[in-house]
Amino acid sequence: MSSNANQPDAQFLARFAQAWNDHDIDALMGFMSDDCVFHAVAGPDALGKSFVGRDQVREGFMAAWGAFPDAAWVDGDHWVHGDRGVSESTFKGTAADGSRVEARMVDVFTFKDGRIAVKNAFRKNRPALAKAG
C-alpha cells in the first residue's frame, strides 16, 4: 500500500472523473500506473474486455469516446479506503445511431504507488433510450 503522502483520496478520483468529462486522454493517463489495467463495462470475458499496459489502456479509454462522442459521467461520488477506491456516477452518451444510454455505474479502483493500477468498470444493463428529438 502507498504511503499516506502518496495515497489517492476522494479528490484524486474527482479529478480523474473530470478528466473523463473533459475527454482529456493525456490527463487521464497521468493518473494511471505504468503497469495499469482497465476492465471495460462490456466484452467477451467475465471481466468485460481487458486492456493491459499503458498503450492498451489509452486505446480502451479513447474507445469510450469513439462509441459515445458526447459521453459524460455526472452526479459522481467518490470513496477511498486504503489501496482501493470507488467512483459512482451516471453515464450519459449518444451512440452514432442516435440511441442514448443513461445508466448508473461504478468504477472500482486498485491503487499502487499513488496512481491507479486497475480500473474495473461496471454499468447497469439498461436498454438504450429512444433517439432524441
Strand content: 35-45%
CATH architecture: Roll
Kindly report the average pLDDT value.
Answer: 93
Order of helices and strands: HHEEHEEEE
Distance between the termini: 50 Å
Could you say which overall geometry the principal axes of the C-alpha atoms support?
A: globular
Number of domains: 1
Question: By helix and strand content, what is the structural category?
Answer: alpha+beta
Q: What is the strand tally?
A: 6
Strand order of the biggest β-sheet:
2-1-6-5-4-3
Query: In the CATH hierarchy, what is the class?
Result: Alpha Beta
Cα Rg: 15 Å
> How would a textbook summarize the main sheet?
6 strands, mixed
Helix content estimate: 10-25%
Low-confidence stretches: none
Helix tally equals 3
According to CATH, what is the topology? Nuclear Transport Factor 2, Chain: A
Helix-strand blueprint:
Layout: H1 10-21, H2 25-31, E1 32-39, E2 50-52, H3 54-67, E3 72-81, E4 84-94, E5 100-112, E6 115-123
Parallel strand pairs: 1-6
Antiparallel strand pairs: 1-2, 3-4, 4-5, 5-6
Index terms:
3 helices, alpha+beta, 133 residues, 41% strand, Nuclear Transport Factor 2, Chain: A, 6-stranded mixed beta sheet
Notes on the protein architecture:
- The structure is a single chain.
- The chain is of the alpha+beta class.
- It has three helices and six strands.
- Strand 3 and strand 4 form a beta hairpin.
- The longest helix is centred in the middle third of the chain and has 14 residues.
- This is Nuclear transport factor 2 family protein.
- InterPro entries: NTF2-like_dom_sf, SnoaL-like.
- Pfam families: SnoaL_2.
